[in-house]
Amino acid sequence: MLSRREFLQAQMIGFTWVLTGPRHLFGGQAGRSARPLSWTNYVRISGNSLRLDRVDQIVKEATETHVFGIETDNDIEGRYESFLDPHEKLAAIKAVADNAHAVGNYAFVYVAGFECITANVAKVQHSLYKDHPDWVQRKISGEPALFGGGTAFWIHAGDEDVWVSPYVPEWRKIYMEHVRQIAATGIDGIYVDIPYWMTHFTGWETTWASFDKYTVAAFKSRTGLDARKDLELGDFSDPNFRRWVDFRIASITEFMEEVGDNMKSVNPRAVTIAEIYPGIEFSAVRVGSDVYELYDMIDVIAHEYNWEGGHRAAGKTPLDWLHWMIGMYSFRAFAGEKPTWMLSYSWDGEKGISPGEEMQNLFASQLAAGTNCWDVKGHVMSGSNDIAMRTEIFGWIAQYEQVFYNARTAIHPVGVYFSPRTRNYFCEEFLDSYLGLMALLMHSHREFEIVTPRSLKNFRGTVLVLPDARCLSDRELAAFEGYAKSGGKLIVIGQSGNCDDTGKARGSNPLHQFLGIRNAARKSMGAASPKYAYLPDCPGQAYWRALSSEFIEAAARGVAEGQSFQSLRHEFDTGVIQALGFSAPVQVEASPFLTAQIARVDGKVHIFFANFKGLQALKISKQIPEQNVGISFSTSAGSRIFLLPFLGTVRELPVQYKGGRVRAVIPEIERGATVWLE
């Protein structure tokens, strides 16, 4: 553990602080310059309860444990007393910002989104609901989003918890004034916690709230529709309900954009951060916070990523880990050069399981995906399950941060298209196809690139898969047609292209028209020289739905999965991908329990590995090492191969040369490893 003096001495000896941070020099990656991206791309986060008398302690502990990017929590917006008078909390925010900057660190402050708590409501004259009952979100029946102690773990007995409508003019004006006041303290970022429509507490999940008078009026002004009368809640075949879905997502996105505009009007260097637990799944549609849309409008998303799979590392099955990786790869694709922070949980008292082991599993997976690590204790935002382990891991990440966090660019990928509108309107069908196709590529260790409507114009791969992407706009279709005419190969799966971007069925499918697909064909590969593949039976759906039991058992025992999975994978890889003429310049030979992302970083070809073999939910947190992993590259990319094991040091691997390729074998990968070619 370093003292402040030792820390400052280390800066002088080992790296140089500049405006954007330190420079590290180490074997196999020497000569790197200062961080090329924003400080937000390199953070190693811890959470802290903020009071004026704790500021020195917070910054000291961050320094000693290699934290870079200090979260502080005094929540002006989410507590009614400070919503009315924020001055005391503003002083603490300024103090922590000043102290963090004095040691070359950065700090950001937590505020609630639409939630506001009044403590001991029976003993006070004023509460938000007492003073402003019309501000509160409501069910269509009129029931207010008003809750008490026990509804959620952070709401104490006797508290009043309410969720405000973002369309209340008076509340929104005060909220944005507070944002500007916070920005004026010099803090480096404002972290807005779960800006959601209230649909996540028990009894509210299917309400599609809010139907308060302000929100209903805003919807009518945009669409001419009465949300209380003109749509069938939960019916995605109803075009008016789909407009309600779109409106709810747009409302949250616009609110967060306004937060950012107000903050930057005072402090242009500060960043807007949103904490979101929905990921790529249906919960994003339900609560209205869509990470795809939000990434375009704000600087950072901190993902408290949760779906029905294991919420903590200790509870994840190998299939949950695969789902987790696909989710993180998707976030990185949505973000572009913006960072992806993971507010995630390793262990919460599970017996017989080491918290330190689970922390390593969690962070190894995040580094493999290029996402930023945030350590917490249990299921809250602060503390640590194992502070010594965190210190070791964060110190190691600090040495190699640019390997993991500098921009990753595609080399020669198979593209997989993420269709936001299809996810919104046909979620189950699309996700099963998307997750399954990603799994097929990852289990074959193909280089992949997740492509979105924003990145479609820049995709340069020779094969692009449309995983039952039913809802496509005219602009997307024009881009796909141009891609095909320029020589790109489309794999059209399921009902891709059947609907427009409002969810309305088209009279004829434009994809089929410009590719010449005959709907009667069960499987088509274009002409004698294939230009496309048409797979109406959705192999990704079949693969994903079949994985659940057999894959988990096989991964837990560290043995090959069943013949049916291998056959599905072989058929798709050889019968479709290779049949379209795809040839991979980077090749990996390993079991499907090892994930590999292939990308170029700082001009060098890299492979980022994570291993999940042998893990069992709530039982075993130590992997079976993956052994004798074969890797090969074209010699035109380099001739020396370097290996960086998770928590290890860089070493050079012995290589063989044959047929214009350089090959090496990694003897063992425990939790994770990174390989690159020079």
Overall mean pLDDT stands at 92
Q: Which runs of at least 5 residues are low in confidence (pLDDT < 50)?
A: 1-32
Number of helices: 19
What name is given to the CATH topology of the domain at 4-303?
TIM Barrel
What is the CATH C-level name of the domain at 4-303? Alpha Beta
Q: Radius of gyration, Cα only, in angstroms?
A: 25 Å
For the biggest sheet, the summary is:
8 strands, parallel, barrel
Helix content: 25-40%
Structural class: alpha/beta
Strand content: 15-25%
CATH architecture of the domain at 4-303: Alpha-Beta Barrel
Q: Distance between termini?
A: 35 Å
Strand order of the largest sheet: 1-2-3-7-8-9-10-11
* Strand runs, count: 26
Outline:
The protein is α/β, with parallel strands linked by helices and 678 residues long.
List keywords for this structure.
678 residues; 8-stranded parallel barrel; alpha/beta; 19 helices; disordered N terminus; TIM Barrel; Rossmann fold; 6-stranded antiparallel β-sheet
